[in-house]
């Protein structure tokens, strides 16, 4: 029996670059869509360039740099690659023909880039009335900040998210990952799914304008509610939780190893005290209830740290989990790869790549019972599917495909 994926039969043209844009196509590809990555050798996707962490190029072989970046392999798994110069009349016409047989386009350019190229929504809807066009930018296509040049750290800062990341004494700590990109990509992908559903019901396409600032702001419900209801401006609070203690990251045996612990409710508190071998502190006046434990959390953290320093993060977490207490080691990339829980849930998959051989990628992070998703293939090599797109999909004679390649329309 052939497995049917949720978006089987949907074709997506992915103009995305760097992280935020390609991550949209990654999600749609895992759901079964045919995602064609629109690329150019004259301006490579930023995730294809830079110093690779794997591959023979480190030994001096400089022939395969665009195929070696690990992050690119994850963001673009299962996609096809079309290298085309759509600034040429021939390239633009070819791209428009491809749009006619596609369902969705996605991009994360600044507002107006594709409009100026002649392939914005107002142009595409004339040749494909039910097309779904998703455009993502820092602050959206309209409004006073529409012209800003932004990327993940900028958008999380503008949203207010960065102002809440820091230590309890109010010192801000810049987030080290592009959470704004990943978060906005998830929002954009869900918006595309909703647009596809609506098109099934009405036959109408639409333009989806995604602002990364707004998708980050969505995550700040409690701080916004606190401000509008109580007039309080949220500040960084580190690992402090107003209703839970212990609630912290605690040092363990060894160098720079840590375990996260969060205790809620009286039953968990007593189970925690027994698990660390100190049942007697459960009834001490300083820790008699949640209010007192939060108030005296510094003293409590000292007791907890004395216990965790004698254990590895895994041993500490296992002991507390067995007692019904929420706890987990703080992991680096190596720990994630070998973690029993992740491996039990098959969080990693091996994919065969034509240049690198077997590579490990994060698996699809969700499970659907009726329409299970999967990684459908490796990330494409640059221009790997020029022939498929032009000849097989669009019916361009092979002689013309070769001619376009010689003209560097297909690069």
- Mean of the pLDDT scores? 92
**So how many helices?**
17
What is CATH's topology name of the largest domain? Rossmann fold
Strand content: 5-15%
**Spatial sequence of strands, sheet with the most strands:** 3-2-1-4-5-6
* Total count of strands: 11
Q: What is the SS-derived class?
A: alpha/beta
Report, as a whole number of angstroms, the end-to-end distance: 39 Å
Enumerate the spans where pLDDT stays under 50 for 5 or more consecutive residues: 57-61
User: How many separate structural domains?
Assistant: 2
Helix content: 25-40%
CATH class membership of the largest domain: Alpha Beta
In brief:
With 411 residues, the protein is an alpha/beta fold. The protein has helices at residues 20-30, 70-75, 89-100, 113-117, 121-127, 152-159, 179-202, 212-217, 221-230, 265-275, 290-295, 297-308, 313-322, 333-338, 340-344, 386-393, 398-406; strands at residues 11-14, 34-39, 80-83, 104-107, 132-137, 206-211, 247-251, 258-262, 326-329, 348-353, 357-362.
């Amino acid at each position: 029996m052939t497995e049917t994926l949720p978006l089987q039969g949907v074709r997506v043209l992915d103009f995305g670059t760097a992280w935020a844009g390609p991550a949209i196509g990654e999600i749609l590809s895992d759901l079964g869509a045919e995602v064609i990555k629109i690329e150019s050798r004259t301006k490579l996707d930023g995730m294809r360039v830079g110093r690779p962490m794997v591959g023979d190029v480190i030994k001096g072989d400089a022939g395969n740099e665009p195929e070696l970046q690990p992050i690119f392999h994850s963001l673009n798994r299962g996609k096809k690659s079309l290298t085309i110069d759509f600034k040429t009349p021939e390239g633009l016409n070819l791209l428009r023909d491809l749009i006619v047989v596609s369902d969705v386009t996605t991009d994360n350019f600044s507002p107006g880039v594709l409009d100026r190229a002649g392939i914005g929504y107002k142009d595409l809807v004339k040749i494909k009335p039910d097309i779904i066009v998703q455009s993502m930018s820092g602050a959206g296509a309209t409004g006073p900040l529409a012209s800003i040049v932004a990327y993940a750290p900028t958008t999380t800062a503008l949203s207010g998210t960065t102002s809440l990341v820091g230590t309890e004494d109010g010192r801000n700590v810049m987030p080290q990952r592009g959470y704004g990109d990943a978060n906005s990509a998830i929002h954009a992908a869900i918006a595309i799914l909703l647009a596809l559903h609506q098109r099934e019901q009405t036959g109408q396409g639409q333009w989806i304008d995604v602002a990364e600032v707004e998708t980050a702001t969505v995550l700040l419900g409690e701080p916004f509610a606190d401000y509008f209801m109580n007039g309080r401006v949220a500040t960084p609070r580190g690992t402090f939780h107003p209703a839970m203690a212990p609630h912290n990251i605690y040092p363990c045996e060894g160098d720079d190893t840590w375990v996260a612990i969060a205790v809620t409710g009286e039953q968990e508190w007593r189970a925690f005290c027994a698990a660390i071998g100190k049942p007697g502190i459960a009834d001490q006046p300083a820790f008699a209830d949640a209010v007192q434990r939060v108030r005296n959390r510094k003293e409590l953290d000292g007791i907890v740290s004395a216990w965790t320093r004698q254990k590895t993060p895994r041993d500490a977490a296992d002991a507390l989990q067995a007692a019904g207490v929420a706890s987990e080691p703080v992991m680096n990339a190596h720990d994630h790869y070998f973690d029993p829980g992740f491996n039990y849930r098959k969080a990693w998959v091996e994919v065969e790549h034509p240049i690198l051989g077997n590579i490990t990628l994060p698996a699809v992070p969700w499970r659907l019972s009726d329409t299970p998703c999967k990684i459908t293939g490796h990330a494409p090599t640059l221009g790997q599917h020029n022939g498929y797109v032009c000849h097989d999909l669009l019916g361009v004679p092979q002689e013309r495909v070769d001619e376009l390649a010689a003209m560097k329309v297909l690069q």
